[in-house]
């Protein structure tokens, strides 16, 4: 008696093995690609936020610097406006007593200080009337010496600090 056993042999091919392994690998690749895309999107969003925050910080710094400069300029102009009457008094004193060395010395010191801090006198006599820097308070007839709409006389000096008018010059204008 022979014992015969029957054995079933299933045929297996390399292609079958690759297909069985490929399906989970494809699923893993799809998951990995989705995760990569998600991370790239997150990176792009974070980079955008970073750039916006950096720009906002730079704008804030710039505004703070401009505000600081503006406040300093306003204080300087305020102080300069308070000093103008002293220069006016020295001008009047020098006109009444041109030989007084003390008055000359003080006037020169004030003029030097004005120059150092950027205060300049507005040019008037012989210049065309400019309403932004001249305040015409009197009119005289035009002559050979002064053409129409030309400043003929300065009654009170005007001053500027940079491009800001501290005080307009009071003038007489030829008509």
Could you characterize the architecture of this molecule?
By secondary structure, this protein is an alpha+beta fold. The chain has a domain at 120-175: Head domain of nucleotide exchange factor GrpE (Nucleotide Exchange Factor Grpe, Chain A, domain 2). Helix content is 57%, strand content 17%. It has helices spanning 14-96, 101-117, and strands spanning 119-121, 134-140, 150-156, 159-161, 164-167, 169-174. Strand 4 (159-161) and strand 5 form a beta hairpin. The chain is rod-shaped, with a radius of gyration of 44 Å.
Secondary structure: helix percent: 55-70%
Weakly predicted, low-confidence segments: none
Oligomer: single chain
Order of helices and strands: HHEEEEEE
Radius of gyration: 44 Å
Q: What can be said about the biggest beta sheet? A: 3 strands, antiparallel
Q: Which class do the helix and strand fractions yield?
A: alpha+beta
Strand content: 15-25%
**What CATH architecture of one domain would you give?**
Roll
User: Which fold name fills CATH's third level, the topology of one domain?
Assistant: Nucleotide Exchange Factor Grpe, Chain A, domain 2
Tell me the name of the CATH homologous superfamily of one domain: Head domain of nucleotide exchange factor GrpE
Please give the CATH class of one domain: Mainly Beta
Mean pLDDT over all positions? 88
Strand element count:
6
| End-to-end distance | 149 Å
Q: Strands of the largest sheet, in order across it? A: 1-4-5
Q: DSSP helix count?
A: 2
Name the overall outline.
rod-shaped
């Amino acid at each position: 008696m022979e014992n015969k056993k029957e054995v079933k042999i299933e045929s297996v091919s390399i292609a079958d093995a690759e297909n069985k392994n490929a399906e989970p690998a494809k699923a893993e690749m799809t998951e990995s690609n989705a995760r990569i895309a998600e991370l790239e999107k997150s990176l792009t969003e974070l980079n955008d936020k970073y750039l916006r925050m950096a720009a906002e910080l730079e704008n804030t710094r710039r505004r703070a610097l401009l505000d600081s400069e503006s406040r300093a300029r306003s204080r300087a102009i305020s102080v300069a406006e308070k000093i103008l009457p002293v220069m006016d008094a020295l001008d009047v004193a020098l006109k009444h007593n041109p030989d007084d060395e003390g008055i000359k010395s003080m006037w020169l010191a004030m003029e030097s200080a004005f120059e150092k801090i950027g205060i300049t006198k507005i040019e008037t006599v012989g210049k065309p009337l400019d309403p932004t820097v001249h305040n015409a308070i009197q009119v005289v007839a035009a002559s050979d010496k002064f053409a129409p709409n030309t400043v003929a006389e300065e009654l009170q000096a005007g001053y500027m600090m940079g491009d800001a008018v501290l005080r307009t010059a009071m003038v007489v204008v030829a008509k």
